Amino acid sequence: MHEVTPLFSMGLLKKLLAGLVIAAVIVVLVLGYFGFVPVVSDIMRANAPRDLGVTPTTSALSSINSKLGVTYSTLPASATGAASLSESGSQQISVELTSEEVTALINDHASKWKYYPIEEVQVKINPDNTVELSGVLRVDRWSGYADAIGLEEGTRSQIRPYLGYVQTNPAVYLKGTISLGGYPQIDLQNTQIGKFDLPVDQANAYAGVLEYFAYDVSHLYQVQISQMYASGGRLVVTGTIPTQVAFAPPVEQQTPVRQTEFWAPSTENAVQAFSLVTLVYVVGNFLRAQLSTVGEKLGGLLPSGVQMWIENYIGSKGEITIQAGLGSAFKLTKIELIAYAIALTTLTVAFAYSSAATLSEMLVAIPVILGTSILIEFLKNYLLNVFSRSKGAWTEYRIWFPGFLMFAVSAFVFKTPFSSPSKTAKNACPEADNICGLMAVSSVVLVLLFGAGFYYVSTQGISDIGNIGLGMCLLAAFFDSFPIPPLNGKDIWDWNKKASILLLVATFAANLYWLMLM
After folding, report:
1. How far is 115 from 101, CA to CA, in rounded Å?
2. Which of 283, 350, 428, 506 could form an S-S bond across to 417 if both were Cys, CB 3.0 to 4.6 Å?
3. CA dihedral sign, ordered 79, 82, 86, 88
4. What is the mean pLDDT of residues 56-61?
5. Beta strands in 199-248 (DSSP E)
6. What is the reported pLDDT for 100?
7. pLDDT at res. 259
């Protein structure tokens, strides 16, 4: 049999993967800083709106409501589309509004209506008659907003292409002049999306879309704005507006309990699970080291039974060593098939129990969770094991009792499935030692890539699969980044300490956002 010379040396593969990881992280961080990456942009506060120094006070809201003379009421929160907004009556107005009044009115409407397209708004009307606006653009409300106000398809088609590039709810900042006396005239001097500044000429090329939109909004239902312009630090508005307006409020305002489309355990349960599992592995590693030291020092002084118990205990807590296989790199062994069956069953039951409130919900969730478990747990480990076998390091999938036990405890006590019921067993050979760090990093990177895919799937409305897949990936990636022997993260630490710290911080930040903000 001829020895096959690998196309790439292990050292080159290691450097290549490290370079790819660092490059990917840099790209994600840069895009996140500019406000274009979900989760990352929010963690970096890239989508925090610019502070213009204008505060929406209660007195300012009372003042503008008195000037406008509109009475507000609440529709059922379940109302959707056009049924979420009601306007009636008609009155003529001619008013001058301050920055604080306009800011207070917009934020009040954003808190009352489920489809209001912008929030956290500040409007500043400057003495030179320029107007500044900052806020968070709710891209996720766009479709509902357009349906509610009956926006014409012509206007939608003008705006839709620009929103298609945005996967977050970005902060926006606009500065320029606006006048409405017939058709709106908008001249932008400064435009910022996230932290990305658009060139003036490019921004004004898009101003036509804003003018088209402003015209439609100012001539809808009982609203007919005939004149609007800035003058002397105030906004002058003349036209016809309704006397009564009713809004269907945002769902999140109906209850103090966090409402989210994404499944996540309670923050308290997650912290308790993380703490317990980490403590157990740290203490277990300490005891393993102490017993190993005791065994070495006492040697033959201990009875053979005690010596064997110590060795078995240490072995069960550490690496799982196997004999090198002779079969195909692609073929699963019988032990692996049994291990996968046990692990997939455990994952399915644990996540179904953790994400469901009742037995009926749990039973309904099982098929979806089983399919998601197969995609994440089986596909990831199968690909990594095939890769390692092809490089001469025989590895196999095994159930790992300590991890299995902690996984069950965290799932059924804290409803946060944290730890891993399985571990990669490897043959004691130089090739396995050389490749374990590469596999450990690849394991975390693959899971994070899967998580990004599930996040995207969930944002597209396929929540059943996306939600639970995202949770599985974030918890698994965080656990696999812990640099505690004999966990996966310790192999990463030994392989490259910078990569270990980077992955641990990234997975911790992702889990923190998932648990507290989503």
Report:
1. 21
2. 350
3. negative
4. 91
5. 224-231, 234-241, 244-247
6. 94
7. 37
Residue 204 in this model has a pLDDT that exceeds 80: no
Instruction: Give the contacts of 113 (CB within 8 A, at least 6 positions apart).
Output: 84, 85, 247, 248, 249, 250
For residue 496, give the amino acid letter: N
What is the CB neighbour count within 10 angstroms for residue 111? 14
User: Are the beta carbons of 502 and 466 closer than 8 angstroms?
Assistant: no
* Closest listed residue to residue 416, CA positions, set 223, 234, 271, 218: 271
CA separation for the pair 264, 48 (Å, rounded):
24
Calpha distance 87→252 (Å, rounded): 23
DSSP single-letter state for residue 457: H
216-243 pLDDT, tens digit per residue, is 565 565 678 888 889 989 989 898 888 9
Give the pLDDT score at 126.
Answer: 93
pTM: 0.49
Q: What percent of the chain has pLDDT over 90?
A: 9
Question: SS3 for 33-57, per residue?
Answer: HCCCCCCHHHHCCCCCCCCCCCCCC
Q: Which residues contact 206 (CB under 8 A, 6 or more apart)?
A: 162, 191, 198
* Beta partners for residue 133, in sequence order: 123, 174
Q: H/E element holding 387?
A: helix 379-390
Q: Kindly tell me the burial class for residue 73, based on how many C-beta atoms sit within 10 Å of its own C-beta (0-12, 13-18, 19 or more).
A: exposed
Cβ(428)–Cβ(321) below 8 Å: yes
Distances from the Cα of 44 to the Cαs of 36, 118, 479, in angstroms?
11, 20, 23
Relative to beta strand 244-247, strand 71-74 is parallel
Predicted pLDDT at 304: 53
Residue 484 has pLDDT above 90, yes or no: no
Tell me which of 499 and 363 has the higher pLDDT. Answer: 499
Q: Give the integer Cα–Cα distance in Å for 472 and 368.
A: 13
pLDDT per position as a tens digit, 110-169: 899 888 888 899 999 999 999 998 988 887 788 888 888 777 777 677 666 666 555 567
How many Å apart are CA 395 and CA 323, to the nearest integer?
Answer: 9
Kindly give, in sequence order, each residue whose CB lies less than 8 Å from that of residue 320, ignoring residues fewer than 6 positions away.
398, 400, 423, 424, 425, 426
The answer to whether the beta carbons of residues 56 and 104 sit under 8 Å apart is yes
What is the full DSSP assignment across 51-88? P-S----HHHHHHHHHHHT-EEEE--TT--GGGGEEEE
pLDDT value, residue 60: 92
